[in-house]
Amino acid sequence: MRMQTRVLLAMGAVLFAAAVLAFEGAATIDRFHRITDRVAIGGQPTPGQVTALSADGFNAVINLREEGEFNDGPQARAARDSGMLFVRVPLSREKPEDAAVDKFLAATDDEALYPIFIYCASGDRAAALWMIRRVVRDGWALADAEAEADRAGLQAGKMRDFAHDYLLRHGGGASGGGS
Predict the structure, then answer these.
(1) Residue 33 backbone dihedrals phi, psi, to 5 degrees
(2) Do residues 131 and 104 touch, judged by C-beta distance below 8 A?
(3) Fewer CB atoms inside 10 Å of the end CB: C or N, the chain?
(4) From the centroid of its chain, how far is CA 147?
C-alpha cells in the first residue's frame, strides 16, 4: 500500500510540473502576438516562457530593452539552456536611435535566427521595429505594415512617431497603398 501511495504521489508531482509548464507557455507572454509562423512579438517573457518558446520551435529571442530597464540574465540563460540564441538590441523608449534600428535590421536579416520572438517591456518597440522591417526589407507599403503593427499592439506615441520618422529619412515614405 505504501508503494502505491508513493507512485501516486510521484505521478501527481509529474502532472503538477507539466501543468505549471503548460501555464508558462509562450501564448501566456504578455501581449504575445504571432505575426507569422516565423515571427512573434510581445512583452517581457519569464524564463519559463522563454523555455516554452524553444519548445514551440523558436530559434532565437531578440530583446529590445535597455540594460538599465531590466536584468535579462535569467531570460538569456533560459534561451541558451534551451538551445536558442539570445540577441540584445537595446532601443530607448525615450530617445530611440537609428543605430538600434540598423542593428535590429541586421539581426533579422540572419535567416538562421528564425523563427524568432522579439520583445520589449510591452511589445510597443517590437511592433514599431517590425513595422520598419516590413517596409525597408520586405518592401511592404507603409499602410499595410502599420496595420499589421497595430494588430500586434503598436501604441500611438513616441515609437510610432519614431518609426514614421525613420521611414521618411530612409526612403520608406509617409504613406502607402496596398502591397
Answers:
(1) -140, 120
(2) no
(3) N
(4) 18
Q: Who has greater pLDDT, 2 or 125?
A: 125
List phi, psi (to 5°) of 14. -65, -45
- What lies within 8 Å, CB to CB, of 82 at 6+ separation is 50, 51, 53, 54, 55
The larger pLDDT score, comparing residue 173 to residue 96, is at 96
The beta strands (E) that lie in the chain are given as: 33-34, 39-42, 60-63, 85-88, 116-119
Selection from 71, 75, 73, 74 nearest residue 61 by Cα: 75
Buried b (16+ CB within 10 A) or exposed e, 29-66: bebbbbbeeebbbbbbbebbbbbbbbeeebbbbbbbbb
Complete domains list, the chain, with CATH = 20-169 (3.90.190.10)
| Contact criterion met (CB below 8 Å) for 58 and 178 | no
Instruction: Say what the pTM is.
Output: 0.82
Provide the β-strand partners of residue 70: none
- pLDDT tens readout for residues 47-58: 999 999 999 999
Ramachandran category for residue 45: left, alpha or beta (phi over 0 → left; psi -120 to 50 → alpha): beta
Confidence of residue 25 (pLDDT cuts 50, 70, 90): confident
